Amino acid sequence: MDDEPEAVELVEFNLQKAGFLVITATDGAAALKKARSDQPDLIVLDLMMPEIDGLEVCKILRRDPATARIPIIMLTARAAEVDRIVGLELGADDYVTKPFSPRELVLRVNKILRRGQPDRAEPDTLRFGHLLIDTPRHIIQWRGKPVELTSTEFKLLALLAKRCGRVQSREQLLRDVWEYNTMVDTRTVDTHMRRLREKLGPAAKHLDTVRGVGYRFVEAAP
User: Fold this and answer.
1) Run of H or E including 197
2) Whole-angstrom Cα Rg for the chain
3) What's this model's pTM, rounded to 2 decimal places?
4) How far apart are alpha carbons 166 and 163 in whole angstroms?
5) Which domains does the chain show, CATH number per domain?
6) H-helix or E-strand containing 46?
């Protein structure tokens, strides 16, 4: 979803070449309409769009139960660091900076779509007091009530829970959750952790910050 025809064509061509069915939109209003009607598996969202900008589109998508769990990759200008951070805080799963490599974009799309697939080598469900993590059904429950998470937030929580008690550095989380092999801004992790804690509410007691190192999941008393 982008307002530049050349960028739209570039994204569409490369994703189609990779085997994806692609639906496009050139303004924010059309993007919202198509996201709600077509329910895509993933959205590539440019921040600079007419009518409704990308940040507002992201915010609206995350507030709507019908689209809240659709993964979002933002396309941003390289210099707009603040936009990237705000976008992650609003619920975007990842970002790609312009000018971007089509190959990198395809890799990011594939990685995010894999996050929603359960790892058959891991336990199907984990329970810690009133917190239930059901990997095959991609469900989080606290005291029997569902907690709506994005695919990235779910993978982050599930990974920490499976490594309960072990401290995970920000760099390790970037490799294992986002599958980044090179150093990027570790604030990506902090932004997602902050949003994850907000969504978990009382269940966030299971998430512990280890100052100067990273994060760990703890078996807090229910």
Assistant:
1) helix 187-200
2) 17
3) 0.67
4) 6
5) 5-115 (3.40.50.2300), 125-217 (1.10.10.10)
6) strand 43-46
Helices 54-63 and 81-90: angle between axes, nearest 10 degrees: 10
Q: Residue holding tokens 């490799």?
A: 175
- Residue 141, strand partner residues: 132, 146
Res 75 pLDDT > 90: no
Query: Which residues, 6 or more positions from 187, have their beta carbon under 8 angstroms from its beta carbon?
Result: 85
Residue 49 one-letter amino acid: M
Q: Which residues, including other chains, have CB under 8 Å from residue 150's CB and lie 6 or more apart?
A: 62, 68, 69, 71, 72, 91, 93
- Map tokens 């280890």 to a residue: 210
Contact 173, 129 (CB under 8 A): no
> What is the tens place of the pLDDT at every residue in 153-197?
999 999 999 999 999 999 889 888 888 765 566 788 999 999 999
pLDDT digits 0-9 by tens, 120-142: 445 578 999 999 999 888 899 99
Q: Which tokens belong to 200?
A: 């978990």
